[in-house]
Amino acid sequence: MLPLALDLSGRDVLVVGMGRLGAHKTVQLLEAGARVHVISDALLVPVPEGVASVRVRPYRPGDLRGHFLVVSATANETVNDQIVAEAEEQHVLLNVVDDPARCSFYFTSVHRDGDVVVSVSSSGASPSLAQWVRRRVQELLPTGLAHVATTLREERATMHAQGLSTERDWTARVEELTRDL
Prior knowledge:
There is one protein chain. With 181 residues, this protein is of the alpha/beta class. It has 2 domains: 12-107, Rossmann fold, CATH 3.40.50.720; 145-178, no CATH class. It has helices at 20-31, 77-90, 127-140, 145-161, 171-178; strands spanning 12-18, 35-43, 53-56, 69-72, 93-96, 109-113, 116-120. Helix 1 (20-31) links the parallel strand 1 and strand 2 (35-43). The radius of gyration is 19 Å and the shape is elongated.
């Protein structure tokens, strides 16, 4: 398992299935800036606000084309089998909800404070454990890290604009900016 932070800003992603778990994954993808499309044979819960498109119909082969990643939240093994096969053929990242063995990526438990993102994974073993660990870490973090990240981003951009390298130890500056949080 290699933890990564994916920039989903403006990327097309697909959620197949709109039940409670499909809606939850949709919200996470929207929060990450993805352009979310939904295909579901039935809308079992309200579709989260901000979804780019909704098609109320069953999944069809070819539906994954053009999507950066896909979430299958169908609870239908036959449909999941088809989606897994198509994702492998199309080289699309895939999460099959509650089936870690068939996933090429896992969702993590996330805490956000602006650009500061803390992500905890149990590698699919237990989402509840990941959430528990994330809550404990979140309780230890000071509020206001978003401002620190913004300040550091601006300082680094100024240095880049001046032709200076930002390859240095920033620990003292981080300590200074977080001292009063």
